[in-house]
Amino acid sequence: MTYIAIHAKAECMTLSKMMQSKLPRELRDMVYAHLLPRKTYTTWGHLGNLWWLNSLQTTSYDHLFTHGYVPLDTMKEIGEMWYEVSTFMVPGFPSGRGSNPSGRGSNPEVASLGLDFLLQDTLGLDIDVHQHVKHIYIRFDYVEGVDENVTQLDANLRRLLPLGVNARVVVYLQCLHRPSSTLRRQQVVALVSKLQSIFPVLEELVEGGKRVMVNVKGYNVFDVKVERLNAPTWISQLTKVLSDEDLRVLWP
């Protein structure tokens, strides 16, 4: 370790302790939010321990989670803020789920492995991950394997019920193999008839204080409202987007 690295480590610890003692939590959170990158992480199954540190290392933020640079109480606060400013993309179930790392065996009634990070306090800092995740996308393939995909979509959404108030949950409709795929109105009607099975859990999420949105091909199409949680409204909203052949696919 070079002299500069040793000096920087000591200075970082001194600054962190001073900030911890002089600033209230609200101001410390503002500092953390300014420091941390706002990135989207795809939560594939079978993630290794501290998997998300890999991306922080490429932007030189990993020292914030390294012992000796910041005290443990500061590290916990930074970790909580990292969950709050990050966006998580859960792949969901495409067809052929047996070989897909985001699935779990062959049972679509079990939530995706990509949601296991909500149960993992990877740094051992006593962080309640559910209460600090604020932005999460759940992918859903609207063309292939729809019946099984809807079943797991319901299981995935139910895993999100413990999220804190004001968490943003996005049901992200896309076609994995042909992102620009369109549907005729009758196909949309058939799709919505299957999606109705997730209406009860969507209602639970909304009534639990979450902001639930439906995103198609990267576009936020509508917010889910309990009073508009019905098939005609969804058919009308989704037909406009899914039938548009000229709509350019965006990536969140």
How much is the radius of gyration in Å? 21 Å
Distance between the termini: 40 Å
- Beta strands, count: 6
Number of helices: 9
- Rounded mean pLDDT is 85
Q: Helix-strand pattern, N to C?
A: HHEHHEHEHEHHEEH
Query: What strand line-up does the widest sheet have?
Result: 1-2-3-4-5-6
Helix content: 25-40%
Q: Strand-residue fraction?
A: 5-15%
Shape: elongated
Structural class: alpha/beta
Q: Biggest sheet: strands, sense, closure?
A: 6 strands, mixed
Residue ranges: pLDDT <50 for 5 or more in a row? 94-99
Overall number of structural domains? 1
Your description of this structure?
The protein is α/β, with parallel strands linked by helices and 252 residues long. Helix 2 (25-35) packs across helix 4 and helix 7 packs across helix 9 (231-242). A six-stranded mixed sheet has the order 1-2-3-4-5-6. The radius of gyration is 21 Å and the shape is elongated. It contains nine helices and six strands; from the N terminus they run H-H-E-H-H-E-H-E-H-E-H-H-E-E-H. The chain has one domain. A hairpin with a 2-residue loop joins strand 5 and strand 6.
